[in-house]
Amino acid sequence: MAAHKHIDAICIAITVLTLLITVLFMNGKALGITVMAGGDESAGMFTENDLDGAWNTSSATKIRLSDEGSTVSGNGAYVYEGDVHIVYAGKYVLTGELPDGSVIIDADGDDKIWLMLDGVSLRCEDGAAIRVEQADKVFLTLADGTENTLSSGSTYSEDAVSAGVDGTVYSRDDLTINGAGSLRVTAEYQHGIVCNDDLAITGGTLDVTAARDAIHANDSVRVCNAELTLSAGDDGITASNDAATSFIYVESGAITIPNCYEGLEAVQITIAGGTIDIDPTDDGINANGNGGNSLITITGGDITVTDDNGRDADGIDSNGDILISGGRLFVSVSSNGGSCAIDYGSESGGQCVITGGTVLACGSSGMAEGFDSSSTQGFLMLNTSASAGTTVTVRDAGGNELISETVPCGFSSVLVSTPDMKIGDTCTLTVGDTQTQMTIDNSSGGFGGFGGFGGGRVPGGNGFGGGKMPGRGGFGKGGGTLDSGAAGEAPDSESPQNVALLSAGDAAPPDLQNGDAGDRSQSGIPQDGRFFGGRQDGGNMRDPTGNMPGQAAASQPTDTPAPISAEALVLLGVSVLALLLGCVIAFFYKRRG
Predict the structure, then answer these.
(1) Residue 538: which of 500, 497, 496, 495 has the closest Cα?
(2) Distance of CA 346 to the CA centre of its chain
(3) What's the average pLDDT block by block, 10 residues per block, for the chain (593 residues)?
(4) Burial class (CB in 10 A: 0-12, 13-18, 19+), 432
(5) Does 202 fall in a domain?
(6) Domain of residue 11, residue span
(7) Is 582 inside a domain boundary?
(8) Which of 115, 315, 443, 582 could form a disulfide with 14 if both were Cys (CB 3.0 to 4.6 A apart)?
């Protein structure tokens, strides 16, 4: 009877709970629900179309570049004053050579463009070789087994400069580079590849040489399955925007940056896999945000940073935190000029925490920093001078080798950690011919002066190093090289839209199939080569007098992320069952009443 009296309240409570669960499900983040694309590390970084570098070209418009007059076979593109213009959603295959011209994509804002480079040599003397003025997203695919080259001159035209065009490949909207071919980009003016939104590189072999940045994006740069060789007058890869939310994400592949000022630079940088080799003159990896939002996360991969001529340069540098949970990190920076192997925002509360992975970081002891005491993986830090080519080795108490590396640059500070180094273990750290027995206690990372491990040889092993952060480890007890030989104490220290795309049979500008500009008064092309009245209206291209006849839009693959995770589906099922249960209870008791 009591239950019957309160049945309305019970049903209301069940309904409210169900709605709450549903809201949380839709919000996703509140319950940690993520949309996955290929694996937990990806976390929606790449769509199916991003990863598809072998799409079907049978219905694509064919464009052949030629100094004697480029030609178009199909629809959605035309040639005007030597440049190729792509103005409609769809697929295009580009071949041939053009010593001075551009491919310009200027479509509707919701159009997706697939452009395959199939043995292309394209140079533009006074602007971008490939220029995306407008599209929802462009997929630049390198055909399997082909070699492609894009280059631009050392001076851009006034129109290009005033429009902000500053790359050999320049896109105002999202851009993906994929496929299994190769692409060489040479930028004599400023940057190699520029994207004002999100740039994904998911395949191919890219060789980029640029006067400034090799790869430059505003919002993000995401890399997997690609091989990149980057030579830059400034940064190898940089992502920056006014919102301070830019990031770089590397999942797999290989990135080699033999010449640059800084290697990777963004507010947040995540390395989940791949091989990265950087030889900068300043920082190798730099999270350059405003303190708290700066973050370098390393969960996998094989990373090497070598800088033998920088001054006040850091191997990896974050204005906030550095979190390492996997992979291998090897840093060798010169001991000259206060170059730090690892630098983070300790002065503003930042931490450097290691919970997994292998790290050997060698640099100057002047402002050396180690790992935070909250680290769950053991580490050792030692200040000792050594010349270039010195071998650093760590052995456990049983004499088993845990790590051994030859360090290319001279150094005065060593920071080392491996998964086999446990807190409380005693290890022998050998630098050249000098052996130091040390007990791992992870009391905190070293700072400043002699990095918290004291200066030089400290009788009894109880030296006090001068730290730059009192209370954060600067005044911790230090080991240095101990007279007694005993161990010193560790120091204190894209949206899933169903966009219909046109097939090769859809409407195209008249009289332009063979590369002829034609009669602009009839074709609807004004002096700047564009169409009047927009690009698309119900699937048809328009001229000044109205819609040109076109066929119905054909179904094409959409840029769709992977399905929702299993946890999310389970949660949705639970909410539905709860709602049904409430309805059943209400129905049962109402009938009894």
Answers:
(1) 500
(2) 25
(3) 54 59 46 35 82 97 97 98 97 98 98 98 98 98 98 97 97 98 98 98 98 98 98 97 93 97 97 98 92 90 91 89 97 85 88 97 88 94 94 96 96 95 96 95 51 29 30 30 32 32 34 34 33 32 30 40 49 64 63 55
(4) middle
(5) no
(6) 2-33+569-592
(7) yes
(8) 582
Tokens matching residue 517: 């500009």
Task: Give every CB contact of residue 398 below 8 A, 6+ residues apart in sequence.
Answer: none
How is residue 173 written in tokens?
Answer: 């909207």
In degrees and rounded to multiples of 5, residue 167 shows phi and psi of -145, 155
- What's residue 289's pLDDT? 84
- Tokens representing 315 are 């191997």
Q: What token pair was written down for 564?
A: 């929702």
Rounded to whole angstroms, the Cα distance separating 481 from 458 reads 7
Q: Dmax over Cα atoms in the chain, in whole Å? A: 94
DSSP-based three-state secondary structure for 547: strand
Which residues 6+ apart lie within 8 Å of 445 measured at CB? 352, 369, 370, 371, 372, 373, 379, 381, 415, 452, 473, 491, 493
Spatial separation of the C-alpha atoms in residues 288 and 464, rounded to whole Å: 32
Domain total in the chain: 1
339 close to 376: Cβ distance less than 8 angstroms = no
- Whole-number Å distance between alpha carbons of 462 and 469: 19
How far is Cα of residue 314 from the mean position of the Cα atoms in its chain?
Answer: 20
Calpha distance 246→191 (Å, rounded): 18
Strands 71-73 and 61-65: antiparallel
Residues in the chain: 593
Can you tell me which residue has the tokens 């990806």? 42
With 0.85 as the threshold, say if the pTM is over it.
no
CA distances from 360 to 21, 395, 454 (A): 46, 14, 20
Query: What is the predicted pLDDT for the residue at 263?
Result: 97
Residue 15 falls within a domain, yes or no? yes
Sorted by sequence, the CB contacts under 8 Å of residue 239 that are 6+ apart come out as 216, 217, 218, 219, 220, 221, 246, 247, 248, 265, 266, 267
The pLDDT value given to residue 365:
86
Rounded distance between C-alpha atoms, residue 415 and residue 327, angstroms: 16
Distance of CA 545 to the CA centre of its chain: 46
Contact 483/460 with Cβ under 8 angstroms?
yes
| Token representation of residue 202 | 């998911």
In 3D, which of 156, 264, 140 has the Cα closest to residue 206? 140
For residues 463 and 480, is the Cβ–Cβ distance under 8 A?
Answer: yes
Q: Are 17 and 588 in contact (CB under 8 A)?
A: no
375-379-380-383 Cα dihedral, nearest 10 degrees: -60
Residue entry with tokens 């007279």: 483
Q: How far apart are alpha carbons 209 and 271 in whole angstroms?
A: 23
Report yes or no on 350 lying in a domain.
Answer: no
Measured between alpha carbons, how far is 1 from 7 in angstroms, rounded to an integer?
A: 10
- The three-state secondary structure class of 364 is coil
Measured CA to CA, the distance from residue 210 to residue 232 in angstroms comes to 5
Partners of residue 116 on adjacent β-strands:
93, 141
